[in-house]
């Protein structure tokens, strides 16, 4: 604005033709272009008549912006490694949430879609808040989704850092990054106080709230918010100074009742994003997982000083299809890579029975847990203390963390504060040990300190470890924290209760917890966690009974849903793979005919499971001469994700063809070739 008076009338006319221009700049340029040689006098006159607006920009915004940029650059640049961030510079442009994203656990989403999003359009980070075409307008409400550990917070950090350096979105004057972890610490807030919490040095929050300049409000981690957003019953508020419940404040901002001129960017895990009505979302994007080259670069980065170890870890990941698919998530890839590296370094120290490369989730997380106990990490190797000594010093803390993890999981709570830690008997002075810093992370905020598990699956593993241990000694239902419930005598009753709860949960948030619980009964994991699991010689008896419970769940599931597939994963974790191996062998030899009937739910469930994890289905899924209408109907939800599907010689009639036609039109469908 200060430099505009130097323009000639002709230059001002050229600028005048440019579009879009901020309102105040447009007004000044109009004066200059219209008054010719008297421009300076006219400009002075304009400044006097429009004093407040220009003062706002020159005297208020510039110092505030400068302080804001300095603050963001000092806070956002830490921990951003350029090599690993290339994936985040292009986001997938999606039309909305799929059924799977709304209903399934994050891990099941990745397993079912085999880590391949069904999207062809993408948008570069620098255009995230720009119009898609010359005739459209910038999005006001943008939502970016991604499963746990995919890099949502890292993406926000990258954007904020790039903006502060002037590399992206230069038309935005203020970027206000906030996390729902911070918002959890407030009971009530006004729109102006919200701005102040993101801009501590702001002197005129009312100007930003009134939309005098373009502002981007970032709300990171909706899935961590303590209160569900209720757009149907939220109280309308249009006063930016009025303090209201934080969830009401967020709904009013998203609806446009408050901060109408601000752009809002929300990040979330997919299931939590469905809280925001689709009609209010102007643009939805999704963070994609690793491709093959990116996964290799990531693993190489983990073991920079040991290329042999890096290639061995990658070789083991690639050899296990289901593990490879999950390793498209950076957070999971880091846990798996660390665990396999730990095994490769210490495999010679173990008995022959225990020296098997970790393949199941439970085995991988058991090795990760042992690393946390010993403090022996790939990037900082040191002599580990004897495991017995570590067990004695850490058992109480692990028990408390496990209880926190379990009851947090039941309440869908993934962020904890000091009052939570004290309520569960966790000694905060012990939280500096390797054990806790690798399992539970700490974040100091303006008003309090937040604690959260390093990945959702870490919380689920510790919850299963706690439940397994507690189920051996308690007589009350562990799902009722108060302890007032009908007695449940014996481990098997507790195990059955957990399986039933998982099957009945509409949000599927206990599925991976039950997988870990099943895996703790496997002989391999029992050896790995020797000293942590009670009842050293009891697990074999419990294991056979637990297998019976899991198979009983399959015999009643006529439609082969993702619940049945997860139950097959539980059997795999518990190392009962006979059914799956028999069906896989029949697939290899093309002798499935006669094995698949509606009454044989075990084989049908095993087939649905194998469609996700077996190498036999990697290039082509061959289901020739083995399906009828009922079996085909029961498998529909799994056939959706077979890229190359062969169904010839099945004597299909019109009813099956109609079924297949409906499948091909489903949004989630990934079938590319159908024979």
List the helices and strands and how they pair.
Layout: H1 9-17, H2 23-35, H3 39-49, H4 51-76, H5 82-85, E1 90-94, H6 99-103, H7 106-113, E2 122-124, E3 141-145, H8 152-164, E4 174-179, H9 180-183, E5 188-189, H10 191-198, H11 205-209, E6 215-220, E7 244-245, H12 246-255, E8 263-268, H13 270-273, E9 283-286, H14 292-302, H15 307-319, H16 321-326, H17 330-346, H18 361-374, H19 387-410, E10 415-417, H20 418-423, H21 434-439, E11 440-444, E12 449-453, H22 456-471, H23 491-504, H24 511-519, H25 523-528, H26 539-554, H27 562-573, H28 578-588, H29 601-613, E13 621-622, H30 629-639, E14 644-646, H31 654-664, E15 673-674
Parallel strand pairs: 3-8, 3-9, 4-6, 6-8, 13-14, 14-15
Antiparallel strand pairs: 1-2, 1-9, 5-7, 10-12, 11-12
InterPro entries: CARD, DEATH-like_dom_sf, NACHT-assoc, NACHT_NTPase, NLR, NLRP_HD2, NOD1/2_WH, P-loop_NTPase
GO molecular function, one term: ATP binding
Domain NACHT: 140-272
Supply the number of helical segments. 31
Major sheet details: 7 strands, mixed
Radius of gyration: 29 Å
Report the uncertain regions.
35-40, 45-60, 381-387
Envelope shape = globular
Helix/sheet category: alpha/beta
- The CA-CA distance between the termini, in Å, is 66 Å
Helix content: 40-55%
GO cellular component, one term: cytoplasm
Subcellular location: Cell membrane; Cytoplasm
Pfam family, one: NACHT
Domain CARD: 1-62
